[in-house]
Amino acid sequence: MADTAQNLVAAQSRSGKGKGPARRLREQGLIPAVVYGLQAQPTPVAVDPGAVMKAIATPHKRNTLITLQLEAGVKRVLFKDYQVDPVSRRLLHADFLEVALDKPVLVKVPVVTTGRAEGVAAGGILSVSTHEVTVEALPERIPVQIEVDVTPIKIGHSLHVSELTSPPGSKIKYATDYVVAYVAVPEKEEVVAAPTAVAGAVEGAAAPAAGAAPGAAPGAAPGAAPAAGKPGDAKAAPAKGGDAKGGKK
User: Fold this and answer.
1) Distance CA 9, CA 219 (A)
2) Does residue 153 contact residue 118 with C-beta atoms inside 8 Å?
3) Could you read off the pLDDT of 207-234 as tens digits, one per residue?
């Protein structure tokens, strides 16, 4: 556990609600906060945002056990939720969850993979589908992280949450046996065939053959005469024995 003095945050009671009182608190260097948990009614307080960020600057981060110092005494709390300014990213509001040191709580704990999967060595691709799991533990026994050894995962196989080992003093909780990590089969690269010369062959076939007479039908032999009746044909010669006017001599 981290040093308790480092995780001590002073808090003062507040009565005003709404944007006006919240703005006045921020002008004083404080932010509005609410303590939920053991009491029936939430407790509105005001805290120093810098002190809150310093308190959770531990390996446990948001799962750090904080001692909230109030006028009436102390409360042991976890950092539950918060709001930040979308531009400056400064802390604007905080919610705390009061806990009892002898009662377990449910928290989200990050997942960290270790080792090199057998499937990766065989050419597969490791994918981690779960980056945090729900853990039940006493407030002072919350683990920093859940280490997941992916070494046994073969290509095409997966590791489920039921196969994980809970750290001492905690228990991993889940409703369904979901996949934590798996090694996918690599996709084969699609081979694109080179374009054939069909287009060029069609264009060459459409062009007239060398030496073909104008107007000749496609495919006609070079030098063939135009078909009869076509524009440009020679006039028929007069019949034998007749003059140009068709009468007899």
Assistant:
1) 98
2) yes
3) 444 444 444 444 444 444 444 444 444 4
- Predicted TM-score of the model (pTM): 0.69
Q: Which 3 state secondary structure label does DSSP give 73?
A: strand
Question: In angstroms, what CA-CA distances link 57 with 35, 143, 245, 249?
Answer: 20, 15, 122, 131
- Find tokens 């006006």 and name the residue: 20
Looking at residue 48, its amino acid is D
- What three-state secondary structure class fits 97? strand
Both tokens of 233, joined, read 């044909």
Considering only CA atoms, give the Rg of the chain. 43
Provide CB contacts within 8 A for 40, sequence distance 6+.
none
**pLDDT < 50 positions in the chain:** 1-2, 201-202, 205-249
Phi/psi at 20 (nearest 5 deg)?
-60, -60
